[in-house]
Amino acid sequence: MISKQTLLNVVADYEALSSLAAAEVIRQVKQKPNACFCLAAGDTPKGMMRYLVEAQRRNEADFSQSHFVLLDEWVGLDKQDEGSCQHFLYTNLFEPLQIAESQIHGFDAKADDVEEECRQINTTIKELGGIDLTVLGIGVNGHIGFNEPGVDFTKEAHVVHLEETTTSVGAKYFADQQQAPEQGLTLGVSQIMEADKAVIIASGANKRPAVYALLYEQVSSQCPASILRTHHHFQLLCTEDSYPNYEAM
Ligand code: F6R
Fold this sequence. Notes:
The chain is of the alpha/beta class. Helices cover 31% and strands 17% of the residues. The strands form two sheets. A seven-stranded parallel sheet has the order 1-10-9-6-2-3-5. The chain has a three-stranded antiparallel sheet with strand order 4-8-7, covered by helices on one side. The longest helix has 18 residues, at 14-31. The two termini are 14 Å apart. It binds fructose -6-phosphate. The site of fructose -6-phosphate has 15 residues, from loops.
């Protein structure tokens, strides 16, 4: 069952989802201009980012003092590589919002020592005072960031061998590849759980089984997103097509 902490908001369509998710981010930056955000890349948050860019253009939001911590990246890729998480974030958010490099905190997934990159981002997050708001997507296998089924919930940033589902679904981000890279870097579930506020956004019928597991199955690492049900300030925003009708399933 849904825990009493979980706020569920089912909206008609992707535009409504995007606008609602953007409103959460805007509320946070108004409340704390130097807030630290951790935002997923991918198809789901793209519309939200469009709303954020429009809001800053209309002077309804100001991200000039905010910080952004990267959530995850494919090992071997960086912001120059189309299809990478960073390329997505720079193109859809950081560049249009004119976010300075000093406001962006990530890892170099092209580094020789990616484990060291993980240790560094762990330290950086602590130095920033933690994450104020994270807006996550959910994988068809229930992953958050690149925390795949079976993940140890106590982990901080780490290197992951990605599931076949993730690499084959991830091919959609790459124009010329059948499969995405097999390894990823991700913030750990413990860091996501320590965020002051957490939001998951979901859209599309292909996400329905994962949303079902998130909401109604036992909290378990088999659906990493389900742990968010125990977060003190968690919201699930989803479109009608991604929302499982409990009685029908
Ligand atoms: C990407 C990320 C992933 C995605 C998830 C859903 O930075 O963290 O967990 O959020 O795979 O991706 P989309 O939104 O493309 O369906």
